[in-house]
Automatic annotation (TrEMBL):
<keyword id="KW-1133">Transmembrane helix</keyword>
<feature type="transmembrane region" description="Helical">
    <location>
        <begin position="271"/>
        <end position="292"/>
    </location>
</feature>
<keyword id="KW-0732">Signal</keyword>
<dbReference type="Pfam" id="PF01822">
    <property type="entry name" value="WSC"/>
</dbReference>
<keyword id="KW-0812">Transmembrane</keyword>
<feature type="domain" description="WSC">
    <location>
        <begin position="28"/>
        <end position="139"/>
    </location>
</feature>
<dbReference type="InterPro" id="IPR002889">
    <property type="entry name" value="WSC_carb-bd"/>
</dbReference>
<keyword id="KW-0472">Membrane</keyword>
<feature type="domain" description="WSC">
    <location>
        <begin position="164"/>
        <end position="260"/>
    </location>
</feature>
<feature type="signal peptide">
    <location>
        <begin position="1"/>
        <end position="17"/>
    </location>
</feature>
<dbReference type="InterPro" id="IPR051836">
    <property type="entry name" value="Kremen_rcpt"/>
</dbReference>
<keyword id="KW-0325">Glycoprotein</keyword>
<protein>
    <submittedName>
        <fullName>10608_t:CDS:1</fullName>
    </submittedName>
</protein>
<dbReference type="GO" id="GO:0005886">
    <property type="term" value="C:plasma membrane"/>
</dbReference>
Length: 294
């Protein structure tokens, strides 16, 4: 009995550590210059919708209730790539702006020493300065390729509206502990919403969550201490790698769906099968009667 208890304890500890492994962040693949403002503003997103954050930033609650700032080059690049902008610009260590090709027309090049603010989410990188922007190309991000078959107006529509009755909303995912931790993340190269829901259904989970365009998570609860940590819709902005007209969460954000109950699904299939079978039997009977009369 004592041996069984020890094994269970070891298993619980290992599961807990697996659920709270830090999410690894990649360094940016491409860096432009350090640009200095000369009177114009980087308002790419604001020019399309006043409801979108400009600048964009992101924070999450830590395990002990503290606020964790997440902004780093990759987060800003992915965010701007989601909305199909070609450039991402960071300022003051935590402010993210999106821009088009015309950025070079409105900013000049100071020395790189002007971009000396460390990133709030990763102190090994610099994220601009007080009056300077560190600019990156977004075309190196996989997020940019996910949405290549749609335009910015379609993306804004997808982000703001989701009429799927299974959709629960956009929710925060932590920088270390996962919100849906019933399974390790399932990473697929062609995932869609239904792919993730079906996977979680097969594994008897109540909820399916999609993140970053290509990750699927399952779980029976998406609350933390009884409370759901909702995120603004704009944070669930990444197109699904398997279907660009669907949204599959975003960086540190989950698009969560309710998984149909397995037994109810089977019951529905049985009912449908029974109705179809009965109809076919009736048609066959009518054909036989007509042949007999002939």
């Amino acid at each position: 009995m004592k041996k069984i208890f020890i094994l269970l304890l070891i298993n619980l500890i290992s599961v807990s550590s697996q659920q709270c492994d830090p999410i690894l962040r990649d360094p940016p693949l491409d860096s432009r210059k350090c640009f200095e403002n000369i009177g114009q503003t980087l308002n790419g997103l604001a020019s399309f919708s006043p409801t979108l954050s400009n600048p964009f930033s992101m924070n999450r609650k830590g395990e002990n209730g503290t606020t964790i700032a997440l902004m780093d080059p990759e987060l800003c690049i992915d965010h701007c790539a989601d909305y199909l902008f070609k450039y991402a610009a960071l300022k003051n260590g935590e402010e993210c702006y999106c821009a088009t090709d015309s950025i070079t027309e409105y900013y000049n090049h100071p020395s790189n020493g002007t971009c000396n603010s460390t990133c709030a989410g990763n102190p090994t990188f610099t994220c601009g300065g007080e009056n300077a922007f560190k600019v990156y190309s977004t075309t190196t991000s996989t997020h940019y390729s996910y949405g290549k078959n749609i335009n910015i107006y379609k993306k804004l529509e997808l982000v703001s509206k989701n009429s799927d009755p299974r959709y629960q909303g956009c929710f925060q995912d932590g920088p270390s502990c996962r919100t849906l931790n019933g399974t390790p993340p399932q990473v697929e190269n062609s995932i869609t919403i239904d792919d993730c829901i079906n996977f979680c259904n097969q594994n008897s989970f109540k909820y399916a969550g999609l993140e970053n365009g290509h990750q699927c998570f399952c779980g029976n609860d998406y609350t933390v201490n009884g409370q759901a940590s909702g995120a603004p819709n704009e944070q669930c902005s990444t197109s699904c790698v398997g279907n660009s007209s669907q949204i599959c969460g975003g960086p540190f954000a989950l698009s969560i769906y309710e998984v149909p109950n397995k037994s109810s699904t089977n019951s529905t299939l049985k009912i449908v099968g029974g109705v179809v079978g009965g109809f076919l039997a009736l048609v066959l009977l009518l054909i036989i009667l007509r042949l007999c009369r002939g």
